[in-house]
Amino acid sequence: MTSKNLISRFPYLRHDFAASLVVFLVALPLCVGVAVASGVPAELGLVTGIVGGLVTGLMRGSSLQVSGPAAGLTVLVFEAVKEFGLPALGVIVLATGLLQITMGLLKLGRYFRAISVSVVEGMLAGIGLVLIAGQLYPALAAKAPDSGLGKIAGLPGAFLDALGDGRAVASLAVCAGTIAVLLLWRHVPAKVRTLPGPLAAVGLATVAAFALDLPVATVAVRGLLGSVQPPPLSAFGELAGVGLLGTVVAFTLIASAESLFSAAAVDRLHSGPRTEYDKELLAQGAGNTVCGLLGALPMTAVIVRSAANVQAGARTKASRVLHGGWLLLFAALLPGVLAHIPVPALAGILVHSGAKLVPVRALAVLWREHRGEALILAVTAVSIVAVSMFEGVLIGLALAVVKTAWQASHVKLEVIDKGAGPVDAHLSGNATFLRLPKILDSLESLPQDRPVRLDLSGLHHLDHACRTALENWAERHAVGTEPVRLTVPVRAG
Predict the structure, then answer these.
(1) 133 to each of 37, 121, 182, how far by Cα in Å?
(2) pLDDT over 90 at 294, yes or no
(3) Three-state DSSP state, 50
């Protein structure tokens, strides 16, 4: 096939080829960093990135979204590996993928958009806080405590211990330098910025550590084939345990929500085809199924890589497929390069990523405009830090449901009292058990020596508890032989 025919058949190949190189350079340090922070071999992060490109990238859904290991699942993966062991991780990821495929076939993908944005942002904020706290320990050449609260509470002592330790000071300097490069990279000349910030930061940290012979830990390398270990049959017995099943559900909900919310964000960045949510969920499920069979990390769509893909000029899914190919070539031909990367540099990358997950400015705006939503966000984040990922998300979802039910049960009582004769009371809105105390307090404050006409025809909804309580109140309030006149709405249920 001539170059002219190739261009006519793939008119956007030049754009997609260039974008794929940018995405590869952005993804490389993040794949390695997420794997190290998750407590698994660094190569497994590359495996998930490869699958995200070559498997999920080929499938339909969101054409420009890029998938791979995500910082948002780091905390959950670390906890799962610590509790169930590395062989069980493949089982968890495989079950997650199959569950996502099932949900995609049942066309449940679109319903993830109904999840409260405050819960999702609170989830990401909680992950960000635990991620930042957890990564400051490798930055200090120290061992991190197990719990989220323990990580945060132990930081002052860890910093004090580091002051007299040359190894810890060197490690912290590498981490701080990495974060400084990431923060200042947008101010460098445009030609220099063609190299992605994360890669530049890790590259400079690697060169500095080598040139200055700094006593810092580097990434342990096992080789791609040595790291890929499909889960043994014995590990599937863990699925009988409630704890592992709960972890699968947590992986599924968080990975699916993060991917589909990312897809919605990517759609706002380009004018091309819109995301088909059910097909995107199928694609994510297929990718996680393959990752599970290989014993690799779970994948989600990653907004950092996806945004880089769009901004680099990608036009079709070819860019993300090619990026998976570049990751595969790197893992196959240059795995030894990983052994020179300082662990505190990767910690700096993840501290920077974790900070982006904490919406400080958005929370301040939300507090001024929608305090209930701000409260849900904050409670979800604090619950994740204090308890765990799964329970924190459940608490946030429960709080969102209670808030919605409370708002939906808004009811108004209008009383017309002319000073003599019957008192007219009109209820409008939604009368549910949540508002029952308020309704009864208002009705019981009506004059006791005058007849009452209670009109309920303005109610959109009257639940059984309210209806029974109002009928009982009407019987008690009868004045002499004149009962309360009750007008019940036809739609009452």
Answers:
(1) 12, 18, 19
(2) yes
(3) helix
User: Cβ(150)–Cβ(382) under 8 Å?
Assistant: no
C-alpha–C-alpha distance, residues 283 and 100, integer Å: 9
Tokens standing for residue 201: 């930061």
Q: At what angle do helices 242-267 and 117-139 cross, to 10 degrees?
A: 110
260 close to 107: Cβ distance less than 8 angstroms? no
pTM (2 decimals)?
0.74
Please count the other Cβ atoms lying within 10 Å of the Cβ belonging to residue 469: 18
Averaged pLDDT for residues 198-223: 89
pLDDT at 492: 46
Report which DSSP code applies to 40.
S
The pLDDT of residue 321 is above 60: yes
> Can you tell me whether residue 485 is helix, strand or coil?
strand
C-alpha–C-alpha distance, residues 280 and 297, integer Å: 19
- Per-residue 3-state assignment (H helix, E strand, C coil) for 313-344: CCCCCHHHHHHHHHHHHHHHHCHHHHHHCEHH
Quick one: pLDDT band at residue 391, thresholds 50, 70, 90? confident
Residue 258 CA to residue 266 CA, distance in Å, equals: 12
pLDDT for 44 equals 93
Closest among 382, 363, 384 to 374, alpha carbons compared:
363
Tokens standing for residue 225: 């084939």
Q: In 271-285, which positions are buried (b, 16+ CB within 10 angstroms) versus exposed (e)?
A: eeeebbbbbbbbbbb
- Residues 244 and 234: their CA atoms lie apart, in Å, by 14
Q: How far is CA 60 from CA 269, 275, 277, 483, 490, in A?
A: 18, 9, 10, 66, 48
Q: Residue 254 contacts by C-beta under 8 Å, 6 or more apart in sequence?
A: 72, 73, 76, 123, 300, 389, 393
The total number of residues written for the chain in this structure: 493
Residue 144 token pair: 């991190």
In terms of Cα–Cα distance, which of 7, 26, 8 is closest to 310? 26
Residues forming a β-bridge with 485: 453
Token reading at 408 = 């939906």
Helix (H) or strand (E) holding 245: helix 242-267
- Whether the per-residue pLDDT at 304 is higher than 80: the answer is no
> Which of 369, 381, 372, 431 lies closest to 404 in space, CA to CA?
372
In whole angstroms, give the CA distance from residue 24 to residue 308. 10
Burial group, residue 257, by CB count within 10 angstroms (0-12, 13-18, 19+): buried
Q: How far apart are CA 372 and CA 377, in angstroms?
A: 9
Longest dimension (CA), the chain: 100
